[in-house]
Design brief:
16 helices; globular; about 375 residues
């Protein structure tokens, strides 16, 4: 049975925030805007751009702003476009014939979004360029996110990049560009977006009506507005506090608390977010902050009560930092594989937490003072 289109979550939308195509302007990325505008005013605009930077800093918002700006023929140096233009309205409604969006598709058999962008989605891109050629003029594709492509999809895209259609522009959004084929990266021009400064972050969160701890959200999101909105919308700060409290029980981890944390990763993904993805994100962020603590000291500001003292205890030196960093890379890869093959989320998270509890820094850490 096919799902109602209104009930299908958009994989490229942050829960609790509007889709990037509905965001009227790009904030805090003036350098990236200026770089693209200058390139667009040159004799020949490169056919493929790789938009990089941490998740949630505005890469997708930038891609949609580029599409509106180019397809509407606007001349504004800040890429602002009147939202009432026919092109802007069609883009907002996903009905612009000169624009193709490629993202993770919905699987009616499993009732879930697929874990990867498949080759069938890239074939839609090929058809788009073939059938839209009669329209003439520029045609734009947005791939969000390019690092979600599986190998067959990446190879199919590579063929398009090697022999780009006339007037084609491909905007690839990549949170982890190192996961892309080197041959894909080499055929793209990179446009890097930077994390927000704390003052910018606080103002944007206030504008969105977020009344949670702005400092903690800014710390945990690493300067990513999109990530901060997602964390706020899914109770991320409470979930991270639960994680910090769990690791505070080391060196003898509380198994019941671990099971409760792991169970929080279960549940079906919906329009309000994916519990498993949130849990993996928080685990990943926790390990990154642990590794940094061993090199640079406990993080400030703290993202949870007691986080600083815990990280000073678990990651006191560069040796511990290296162990936590290696664990982060290893478990991040395992989580991606587990999601792709639909492993039980709670069981996978429980295994990961218990593995972390057995690492040398966790077992050698002094017992927390009561």
């Amino acid at each position: 049975m096919k799902a109602d289109p209104d009930d299908i979550p958009e994989p490229d939308r942050v829960p609790g925030a509007p889709h990037p195509r509905h965001t009227p302007r790009v904030i805090g990325q003036d350098h990236a805007i200026a770089e693209f505008v200058q390139a667009a005013h040159s004799d020949r605009l490169h056919h493929a751009w790789l938009l990089t930077g941490p998740r949630g800093v505005g890469k997708a918002t930038m891609a949609w702003a580029i599409a509106r700006w180019l397809l509407s023929g606007a001349e504004s140096p800040d890429m602002r476009v009147d939202p009432d233009t026919p092109e802007a309205r069609r883009i907002s409604a996903l009905s612009e014939p000169r624009l193709q969006l490629i993202r993770r598709p919905w699987d009616d058999k499993t009732g879930r979004l697929r874990a990867e962008i498949t080759v069938d989605e890239i074939r839609k891109l090929l058809s788009f360029y073939h059938f839209s050629s009669a329209e003439g003029g520029r045609r734009i594709a947005i791939i969000d996110a390019a690092d979600d492509m599986n190998i067959p999809a990446a190879n199919a895209l590579l063929k398009v990049l090697e022999e780009p259609p006339k007037d084609a522009l491909i905007l690839l959004i990549a949170h982890q560009p190192a996961r892309l084929l080197p041959t894909i990266r080499s055929r793209c021009r990179t446009l890097r977006l930077m994390p927000m400064k704390p003052a910018q972050m606080g103002g944007i969160l206030a504008d969105q009506g977020i009344d949670e701890d702005a400092q903690a959200l800014a710390a945990l999101s690493d300067g990513s507005v999109g990530e901060a909105l997602r964390l706020a919308g899914q109770g991320g700060l409470d979930r991270y506090q639960q994680l910090v409290d769990l690791f505070a029980t080391l060196p003898r981890m509380d198994r019941l608390a671990a099971a409760k944390f792991a169970d929080g990763a279960a549940g079906r993904a919906g329009t309000e977010g994916d519990p498993f993805d949130l849990t993996i994100t928080l685990l990943d962020r926790f390990l990154v902050r642990l590794a940094r603590a061993g090199l640079m000291g406990a993080p400030l500001p703290q993202a949870a009560k007691g986080e600083g003292a815990l990280m000073a205890r678990l990651s006191p030196d560069d040796l511990a930092a290296r162990i936590w960093a290696e664990a982060q890379a290893r478990l991040s890869a395992r989580a991606r594989t587990g999601r792709a093959v639909n492993l039980d989320p709670a069981a996978l998270v429980m295994d990961m937490v218990l593995e972390l509890a057995q690492l040398p820094p966790a077992q050698s850490a002094p017992t927390a003072k009561g």
